[in-house]
Known about the structure:
With 248 residues, the protein is mainly alpha-helical.
Amino acid sequence: MTAEVVDGQAGETLHRKIVLAAADVLENDGLDAMSIRAVAVRAGVFPPTIFRIFGDKDGLLEAVGEYGFEVYLQAKSRLPQSDDPVADLRLAWDLHVEFGLEQPAYYVLVFGPSRSGPLSRAGRKAVAELQRMVTRVAAVGRLRMSVERAAAVMHAAGVGVVSTLISTATEARDLETARVMREVVFDAITAPPAVEPESTGPGTGSAGPAMALRAALAEERALPLSPGEKLLLVELLNRLADVQTVTD
């Protein structure tokens, strides 16, 4: 191992150097090869430096996951916002699948079965962006359930289908699986737009109006409600939205 040079080197530069080295190990050797020693050798630093900067291996993996998901999250945040938020959400699903298949090492690092406990920072950012897009669907009254449940269903299905495709040999993958699952999920969480204003259709029951009201209230900056009352109102609206999915 080369002699470590820390003095005089900016902490941010050293941090990025180690993250890039870890990314190189991940991309070329796989997650199983991601040891502190292997990354230290690749970065040309001593292992204690990695512990000092990242705390432990989990801290290093968090940073590498964020690095790998940076491009994906930027692309997701730049997805077009048309007048049809359901169509926009479909584009988000397709982007998720595309990223997972193009960058399987990073995808497995953030969402794979080897990870236990809460989502990583990169995973939480991805879910937060998903909830933002689902909230746009709620705002037009087209959700069949609460924002949280719809986002959770879409996230679980998306991770499931991508993980399944990743674990399947490339030549044996049926990419139509992702499209079929997408339509199953969207049929479950969204309703078609009402043809007539007074028509409730087969769609959302109480869920659509409840989530549309919740989305509208979220835009109000001067509601005459205390923080506790706002939390109670959201809880009640969510309960109204989710009761149909429980009883169906």
